[in-house]
Design a protein that fits this description.
Strand content: 25-35%
InterPro entries: ADP-ribosyltransferase_ARG (IPR050999), ART (IPR000768)
CATH architecture: Alpha-Beta Complex
Organism: Rotaria magnacalcarata
Number of helices: 2
CATH topology: Toxin ADP-ribosyltransferase, Chain A, domain 1
CATH class: Alpha Beta
Order of helices and strands: HHEEEEEEEEE
Radius of gyration: 17 Å
Enzyme class: transferase
GO molecular function: NAD+ poly-ADP-ribosyltransferase activity; NAD+-protein-arginine ADP-ribosyltransferase activity; nucleotidyltransferase activity; toxin activity
CATH superfamily: Toxin ADP-ribosyltransferase, Chain A, domain 1
Shape: globular
Helix content: 10-25%
EC number: 2.4.2.31
Length: about 190
């Protein structure tokens, strides 16, 4: 189901999300209740993605993105592996969700990035053995891309872009609302 949901989240045809609204609301609500991870996480992708991520570019990852707090996990051929053309994302995130205690594979130290996460490319380098590393930082989007799933008292969190305390205010939600891609500028899909 993971692949189908992510394909719908990444699709230009927003109506493909309709069959998944109930599932997404339930899943995102559950994830929202977990503590947020404010740390560096890693994501490995086979292939060279450096041309798609030049320094300074701001973009959205529309789907759920599986990451790990352990770089060593990515050595598995299932993820990044040690050979072939590969891209390693070094991600500074502020609202990833640690799902290790809810995973079939707790040793992977998995962190899920929520759909509609917004980033800026800081830099990239080409390493030996066909490995590229792209450093990205999660930032607040210029418009709300996904509404929080429920109303709660505001949580205080530190905004890494402003280094000050901000209120994370949740608004009520009767249906999952996701921004359309047509009204965002300078954003890429992954």
């Amino acid at each position: 189901m993971y692949r189908e949901v992510n394909a719908a989240l990444r699709s230009e045809q927003r109506q493909t999300l309709t069959p998944y609204f109930s599932y997404l609301k339930l899943f995102i609500t559950a994830l929202w209740k977990l503590d947020s991870v404010r740390d560096v996480v890693w994501r490995g992708v086979k292939g060279n993605l450096t041309d798609q991520y030049p320094a300074g570019k701001k973009f959205v990852w529309w789907g759920f993105s599986s990451c790990s707090t352990k770089l060593s996990v990515l050595q598995s051929q299932q993820f990044l592996g040690e050979y072939g053309t590969r891209t390693l994302f070094n991600i500074q995130c502020f609202n990833g969700k640690m799902v290790q205690n809810h995973s079939q594979f707790p040793a992977e130290d998995e962190v899920l990035l929520l759909p509609c996460s917004y980033f800026e490319v800081i830099d990239s380098i080409k390493q030996g053995n066909e490995l590229r590393i792209i450093h990205i930082k999660q930032i607040e989007p210029p418009v709300t891309l996904i509404q929080p799933p429920f109303t709660t008292s505001p949580k205080k969190q530190v905004d890494p872009n402003r280094h000050s305390t901000v209120e994370a205010v949740a608004s009520g939600l009767s249906k999952l609302k996701v921004a359309t891609k047509s009204n965002e500028q300078n954003m890429a899909l992954m």
